[in-house]
Design goal:
heterodimer, A: alpha/beta, four-stranded parallel β-sheet, 14 helices, 31% helix, B: alpha/beta, Aconitase, domain 4, three-stranded antiparallel β-sheet, 7 helices, 8 strands, globular, binds iron/sulfur cluster
Chain lengths: 416, 165
């Protein structure tokens, strides 16, 4: 019987044919907790009568949302989690590595055919590695920590076929914003978004991560790019694993087919306060911005930073704008540093922070005052997400962010 | 109990802002529920009140702080046209009643509401509206009183067992 890649992942795990719609108690390969959702998950595990986690090696703990601790409460949370890691034998990455999702990917903690859960909604990013990865709440995570398994309703899939070559200064973030605008904020609820087509097969891992990352913004349970040479090359650098075939059958059942072409795609911007209010950059050009944030698990990778630096060239950032650059991880930071990109940002007037979520969640630093406008390469522009509920957040690519930071207003990166 | 009416796409940042996520006690969180979008909510909400909303309630982050903030403020249930996936699960897991009804548009803010689960309806403003039955796979957890009591009763997980809906 024909199956989608998601159905195949569950079938492989359980050793029998499983199809969308079935609710199954499936084993989990790895579980990620961070400083915001971790403490509650630990408490829930204990309430469920668990003393030990299912497998210390299967639990990845790190801190990224409020680091270095920005309040006494945050410090206490970190302290409590460190204690828990020590007592359980969990290899805690603490605050050294960067944003959880980036770190999970670059350490090879998600691979084709695996089921990975994280107590964070953007866990769906690891679909870029061909894994079934999904974000769960703390109580579900408590259950996973205790049992190493979780109930899943195996999702139906929507297939997004993308063809064409990106024009200059247009890339994966513009594509996924465009798709989000087309599908809508709840257009993929409870389903998986499967990305295919030549645009994806030619896309590097960084871009695939950007796209899978934002699957949740359409309500999806997972985003996934079926593994190919690019995926396996990425995995090979990180762990030993024999490549195997894992593709959707051509006659698999989908709830919907959508096709897109990027040949003439323009830079896209999501308007406040919904991720699916997406327009092309020219429709919003000229909007004055107070803060530009280049970073987050969506667009804080080397590829994004280097694109931004390329747009920046030898210019300076506008003095009217606070430019905050935060590489997604230590590894990405080092790459950018060695390439001279970080130096260029600092020369141009940016603040470069150590890898973390930063202003993305509005819990730590870089908050907005009422009436201020932020242009951000992150994934959410909900009211109050980056500080005051009277502030406005626009979302865009790193290229558009850099161009706009030069002029102090939303600017088409193709015109720089 | 009264209705607190909301529109479509109520996100978890609206329910509880990121800056309060270092708290996780329901009573603490409840003080800041809907702070940015409906400042009067936390002060005026009464034990047993219901939230009635449009599509995609609870979209956004996986923070369980969102259903906990609502539970802490005494909200007895959320009735919406549809729910975001993670919020729905978190609500079921933490014991917040979440009901789906296509007909929430006609319900007014501030109106009285009465719910009859067995009958599959709720009444407000003199009209009766249909609610969808709770999906079978959620029932087991709901009837145990949430995922924690459900898990406490488990000796081992029934790995790879499952059911069609
Ligand atoms: S960077 Fe933003 S979206 Fe990504 S994990 Fe951190 S807070 Fe969440």
């Amino acid at each position: 019987m024909a199956a989608t890649i998601v159905e195949k992942i569950f079938s492989r795990k359980c050793g029998r044919d499983i199809r969308a719609g079935e609710v199954v108690m499936a084993p989990v390969d790895r579980a990620m907790i961070h400083d915001i959702t971790g403490p509650l998950a630990i408490e829930k595990m204990r309430e469920m009568g668990g003393d030990r986690v299912f497998d210390p090696a299967g639990v990845i703990m790190l801190f990224d949302h409020q680091i270095p601790a920005d309040s006494i409460q945050a410090a206490e949370i970190h302290q409590r989690m460190r204690l828990f890691a020590g007592e359980q034998g969990i290899g805690n990455l603490d605050l050294r590595e960067g944003i959880c999702h980036q770190v999970m990917m670059e350490r090879g903690y998600a691979a084709p055919g695996e089921i990975v859960v994280g107590a964070d909604s953007h866990t769906c990013m690891y679909g870029a590695a061909g894994a079934f990865a999904t974000g769960i709440g703390s109580t579900d995570m408590g259950f996973v920590l205790r049992f190493g398994a979780l109930y899943f309703r195996v999702p139906e899939s929507i297939r997004c076929e993308v063809e064409g070559r990106f024009p200059r200064r247009v890339g994966p973030k513009d594509l996924i914003l465009y798709i989000t605008g087309a599908v809508g904020a709840d257009g993929a609820t409870y389903q998986a978004l499967e990305f295919s087509g030549n645009t994806f097969s030619e896309m590097e891992m960084a871009g695939r991560m950007t796209c899978c990352n934002m699957a949740i913004e359409m309500g999806a349970k997972a985003g996934i790019v079926p593994p190919d040479e690019t995926t396996w090359a990425y995995i090979r650098e990180r762990r030993t694993m024999e490549p195997f075939d894992l593709q959707s059958d051509t006659d698999a059942e989908y709830t919907e087919f959508r096709s897109f072409c990027v040949d003439e795609l323009e830079p896209q911007v999501a308007l406040p306060h919904n991720v699916d209010r997406v327009v092309s950059v020219e429709e919003t050009a000229g909007v004055r911005v107070d803060q530009v944030f280049i970073g987050s698990c969506t667009n804080g990778r080397y590829e994004d930073l280097s694109e931004a630096a390329d747009v920046l060239g030898s210019s300076e950032f506008s003095k009217r704008v606070r430019v905050i650059v935060i590489p997604a991880s230590r590894e990405e930071y080092l790459k950018a540093l060695r390439a001279g990109i970080i130096e260029r940002f600092i020369e141009a007037g940016a603040l470069v922070e150590a890898p973390c979520c930063g202003p993305c969640m509005g819990g730590a630093f870089g908050l907005l005052a009422p009436k201020e406008v932020s242009l951000s390469t992150s994934n959410r522009n909900f009211r109050g997400r980056q500080g005051s509920t009277e502030a406005s957040i626009y979302l865009c690519s790193a290229a558009t962010a850099a161009a706009s930071a030069i002029y102090g207003e939303i600017t088409d990166p193709r015109e720089v | 109990m009264r209705v607190w009416k909301f529109g479509d796409d109520v996100d978890t940042d609206a329910i509880i802002q990121g800056k309060y996520l270092t708290f996780y006690k329901p009573e603490e969180l409840a003080k800041h529920a809907f702070e940015g979008v409906r400042p009067e909510f936390a002060k005026e909400v009464k034990w047993g009140d219901a939230i009635v909303a449009g599509r995609n309630f609870g979209c956004g982050s996986s923070r369980e702080h969102a259903p906990l903030a609502l539970l802490g403020s005494g909200v007895s249930m959320v009735i919406a046209k549809s729910f975001a996936r993670i919020f729905y699960r978190n609500a079921v897991n933490t014991g917040l009643l979440v009901l789906v009804s296509e007909e929430t548009d006609a319900v007014q803010d501030g109106a009285e509401i009465e719910v009859n689960m067995k009958g599959g309806w709720f009444e407000s403003g003199g009209r009766r509206f249909r609610i969808e039955p709770i999906p079978a796979f959620m029932k087991e957890i709901v009837s145990a009183g949430g995922l924690v009591p459900y898990a406490r009763g488990l000796k081992e997980v029934p790995l790879c067992t499952g059911s069609r809906r």
